[in-house]
């Protein structure tokens, strides 16, 4: 994938522990276009690569804007962005990719949990621009942790956004079952945020009869996995016939790396899809949040950054 060099034109504190970064070409030229819901891979100071959703208007070509939550248990990504990056610095990023696209619908309901507002903010801008019927529900712990609140309040679509805070009174909290009580063939739901928030929206929609293909989601991080029962297995490389052991306490990516076989990774949690590898034989133990249940059932690809094998050997198309 093509890499772009960008400059941090502006770094802004958007809320408690949330900073936004406005990225531009150093020579001021146009950036590749993107669609609402897109993200970019960012090479964070310190050598890590992380994905961040674009949260500016997709009609803009002069800049990309991302927002980053400082994670108290950061593995280096968010702290690198918050502490090491300043205005004027340059970064390497990928061109935008979209695994969370808007589909044409009579009505769209957007559910944002915390920093999950970023792709949905771009969607709200796009929907407002085309005059679509939509509503956005933005849930945060408190007003001080609500990024882009003033920007949204000053926008042309402000009357279509409702804010809900955990520390507020009961009357302003999201009554999800009421909002999505009646499934409608022309309405699509989009949800992004912490795993618990997404699961709440998705499971509620499922219980109320919403079709799966009308509920769209994007995770920002995976929930901790129970690895107590993990066992060693082998991976076989189809091109060479070589077989390598994957220990119970290591990933396929780590095991192959020891033998000089590199698989491109990014999130290392099965969220982004960067490391997807074809599986030719064997049964996958899927632990990602990227594939749908239907895609997992096909058993022809997996995410070696976190997923494992249920069979003794997994043959990979490498």
From TrEMBL:
Keywords: 2Fe-2S, Flavoprotein, FMN, Iron, Iron-sulfur, Metal-binding, Oxidoreductase
Sequence ranges assigned to domain 2Fe-2S ferredoxin-type in this UniProt record: 233-318
PANTHER family reported in the protein's UniProt record: CARNITINE MONOOXYGENASE REDUCTASE SUBUNIT (PTHR47354:SF1), NADH OXIDOREDUCTASE HCR (PTHR47354)
One MF annotation (Gene Ontology) recorded for this entry: metal ion binding
Species, as recorded: Ramlibacter ginsenosidimutans
Protein name: Oxidoreductase
Matching Pfam families: DmmA-like_N (PF22290), Fer2 (PF00111)
UniProt keyword Signal, yes or no: no
Domain of life: Bacteria
FAD-binding FR-type domain segment(s): 1-103
Names of required cofactors: FMN
Entry-linked InterPro entries: 2Fe-2S_ferredoxin-like_sf, 2Fe-2S_ferredoxin-type, 2Fe2S_fd_BS, Beta-grasp_dom_sf, DmmA-like_N, FAD-bd_FR_type, FNR_nucleotide-bd, MRET
Signal peptide: none
């Amino acid at each position: 994938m093509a890499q772009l060099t960008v400059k941090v034109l502006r770094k802004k504190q958007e809320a408690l522990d949330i900073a936004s970064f406005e990225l531009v070409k150093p020579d001021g030229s146009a950036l590749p276009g993107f669609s609402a819901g897109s993200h970019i891979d960012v090479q964070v100071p310190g050598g890590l690569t992380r994905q961040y959703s674009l949260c500016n208007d997709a009609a803009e070509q002069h800049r990309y804007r991302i927002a980053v939550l400082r994670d108290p248990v950061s593995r280096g990504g968010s702290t690198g962005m918050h502490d090491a990056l300043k205005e004027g610095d340059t970064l390497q990023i990928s061109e935008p990719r979209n695994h969370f696209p808007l589909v044409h619908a009579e009505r769209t309901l957007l559910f944002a949990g915390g920093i999950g507002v970023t792709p949905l903010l771009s969607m709200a801008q796009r929907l407002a621009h085309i005059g679509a019927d939509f509503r956005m529900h933005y849930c945060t712990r408190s007003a001080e942790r609500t990024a882009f609140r003033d920007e949204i309040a000053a926008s042309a679509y402000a009357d279509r956004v409702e804010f809900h805070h955990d520390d507020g009174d009961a009357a302003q909290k999201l009554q999800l079952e009421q909002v999505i009580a009646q499934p409608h063939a022309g309405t699509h739901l989009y949800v992004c945020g912490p795993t618990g928030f997404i699961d709440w929206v998705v499971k509620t929609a499922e219980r109320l009869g919403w079709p799966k293909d009308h509920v769209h989601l994007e995770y920002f991080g995976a929930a901790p996995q129970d690895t107590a029962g993990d066992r060693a297995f082998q991976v076989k490389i189809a091109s060479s016939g070589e077989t390598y052991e994957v220990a119970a306490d290591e990933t396929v990516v780590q095991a192959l790396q020891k033998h000089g076989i590199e698989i491109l990774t990014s999130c290392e949690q099965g969220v982004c899809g960067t490391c997807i590898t074809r599986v030719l034989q064997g049964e996958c133990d899927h632990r990602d949040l990227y594939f749908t249940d239907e895609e997992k059932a096909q058993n022809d690809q997996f995410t070696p950054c976190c997923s494992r094998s249920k069979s003794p050997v997994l043959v990979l198309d490498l």
